[in-house]
């Protein structure tokens, strides 16, 4: 069986693990995600890899090298999805890594350095509002006491979700690998945007990853009858939320030159009815940029807006920061190698930034890191219609194989 057909079978096999009827729903630390993870572990065992799952739920599959004591070359991504997401986000990186191993086994190539595949736990923030949990834990960046009691939409805490997967939340620190050495880390991922498609390029070589600050805003006014409450006597929480939304949009647009973006992805009106002035609204806000000063300016304007609305509309507004990440610059040396391989193989490529966060940004704290993008049709991501042609994925796998072979050679 050729590599393309073999990879398609692998890709489709992974995506059969799905709890929804629309798109792919494989939420972190759920039965579907755990079943998928264990299926992937069996696939890795079939390729004679040494498998373990750490205390955070990360899967580490290791192919031994022929020189003892050398640090591993690592590649990977994640298998969890958002609600009603697509087939490609995260999955491409994990399955591509396994296809690289299959190619090496097929060619009977034994590398000097060991090679690892990592399937990171809970990359998506869909469940708890916190992203890249697995790679944070591996990089020693996970504050377990801060996140212990965060709940999902069903009221399940993160600690409880771990327990339901037979993971001990109190032992999550043991997932840290800060005292280990790594040669390099690589993540292949769909772009999740329109740049490569619009520029007719097959490969994006990422120089930096924008990082989000996320907030949970609760707005409390007074629920009252829509027919008997005069307009000048209302404490309408939804109108306060609307003002915040528009002000946030303007603040982000004013920072457009820095690529800064801001989104209100969740707006809940509690106990809503057509004939009731909304009294209780909550927002979840995501502000991200590769420029910390730019992101901070948007955040300052958000808080200023909240202050004005509290006073002018007589609303109680509570803003709580859920998480705050720092933008990450990736290895220039690795990017030079990737550029050279693309030129040699005649893969059309371009340098670019990532507006989305990835596990690569945490692994960059442990070792030189490269992030490779392949095109997303119409720029769609986190959507059932997310799509990347198989031929584009194969180009990404070809590049990943070459860079893994480059870095898995001993320099001695």
Compact overview of the structure:
Keywords: Hydrolase. With 412 residues, this protein is an alpha/beta fold.
Commentary on this structure:
The protein has 412 residues and is of the alpha/beta class. The protein has 2 domains: 3-210 and 327-407, Zn peptidases (Aminopeptidase, 3-Layer(aba) Sandwich); 212-324, Alpha-Beta Plaits (2-Layer Sandwich). Helices cover 34% and strands 22% of the residues. The chain contains 12 helices and 15 strands. The protein has helices at 3-14, 31-46, 91-106, 133-138, 144-147, 158-164, 195-199, 237-253, 292-313, 332-345, 360-363, 390-407, and strands at 50-53, 59-63, 73-78, 115-120, 184-190, 203-209, 211-220, 224-225, 261-269, 276-277, 280-289, 316-324, 328-329, 349-354, 369-374. The strands form 3 sheets. Strands 1, 2, 3, 4, 5, 6, 13, 14 and 15 form a 9-stranded mixed beta sheet that branches. The protein is elongated. 47% of the residues are buried. The mean pLDDT is 96.
CATH superfamily of the largest domain: Zn peptidases
Query: How many domain regions?
Result: 2
**What is the average per-residue confidence, as pLDDT, rounded to a whole number?**
96
- Helix % is 25-40%
| Radius of gyration from the alpha-carbon trace, in angstroms | 23 Å
Relative strand content: 15-25%
CATH architecture of the largest domain: 3-Layer(aba) Sandwich
Report how far apart the termini are: 36 Å
CATH topology of the largest domain: Aminopeptidase
Count of separate DSSP helical elements: 12
Q: Using the coordinates above, name the CATH class of the largest domain.
A: Alpha Beta
